[in-house]
Amino acid sequence: MSGHTSSPVGRSATGTDDVVMSLENVSVHFDEKQGFVDSLFNEPRRVKAVSDVSIDIPENDVLALVGESGCGKTTLGKTIIGVQRPTEGSVSYRGQDVWDAKDGVGDVTIPHGDIRKALQMIHQDPGAALNPNRKVLTSLEAPLERWDPEMSTEDRRARIFALLDRVGMEPPQDYAHRYPHQLSGGEQQRVALVRTLLMNPDVILADEAVSALDVSLRVETMDLLLELQTQFNTSFVFISHTLSNARYLAEKAGGRIGIMYLGEIVEIGPPDEVLNDPQHPYSKVLRWATADLDPNEQEMVDPPVRSIDIPDPVDPPSGCGFHTRCPEAREACKRSAPDLDAENAAPGARCVACHRTDPTHEYWNSEPLAGTEDTTTPDVGGDGR
Ligand SMILES: Nc1ncnc2c1ncn2[C@@H]1O[C@H](COP(=O)(O)OP(=O)(O)OP(=O)(O)O)[C@@H](O)[C@H]1O
Fold it and tell me: Where are the annotated segments for Disordered (predicted)?
């Protein structure tokens, strides 16, 4: 999706004032690590992990990002919370460019320290994120001491105990004096959650935060995340491999699902629209792969793709990144990249990056690619649905 300036998806109905994070035309590229000998003879391969993504995260938003392994979910999530520096494009927190604040460039209105505090992350493996040699209380006190050195020990502890209590770790004084190995996986995850909430953040990135838990605990933890999201007015960016977890969270929170493919968001919108009536051919593949979303649905035998080979993110296909696998791809898809068409969409509406959503696009007059279905007429409206 390069070569155009796309407008961010996700502006809320009330305008831009309540937008917490704004990404504009963000790309993130990595140089692959090389061995010493390799580095003498070859240029490093550049992985295009995120390509030209524009998105807003308003206050109280829940965005669930899904897509197959390696499609760039974690990289985009980390870019949203200002942990990963973009190669191109801008990332702003309440109007302040995050990386200008970090580098002290220009007129910095929000110090980088405040931005870091406002953007937090819960890791996939909370056990690894907690110091095994420190009691829970010490692990929780450390960031509070760093961010708010004026706070008295008494106030600090009162806040920690109140939050431990809030996430169901009662009596909190007991849990506070345990070491991580004396906690279950679910309890460790709650401590990790408390650690982020102590900062009173605006946005929390939860990267596969429930995948390591038992199924029963997963639902309980997702419910807790949602309760806390409402109570603390925090926005959540939730990364998931599975559509069912993403759906659970986004549906309950009235949030959005963003489907990623090869570094791009290809479809985003309310979960019922994106999952019950997917418009992007790749969203249809994900839907197919998650048959349990609707047990009454007749099982489709073959995946709706021409090829199961995922392109190399070092050398992504020209035009639409999905054209090499799309059963509906045409010559036009090789030539030009569709954008999410957020410009014309209503706030919170579904947006799709596919030429087929535009009934006037040259796609309809171009030749189907070898092995594709010959669908000659537009089957979708031009309203981004
Ligand atoms: N620090 C890095 N250096 C080099 N390549 C990286 C780095 N981080 C990520 N990548 C590459 O960028 C691409 C996107 O990775 P990312 O972890 O964002 O995907 P993901 O969708 O979160 O994957 P998963 O679901 O497996 O965690 C992958 O090809 C990955 O190998």
Answer: 362-385
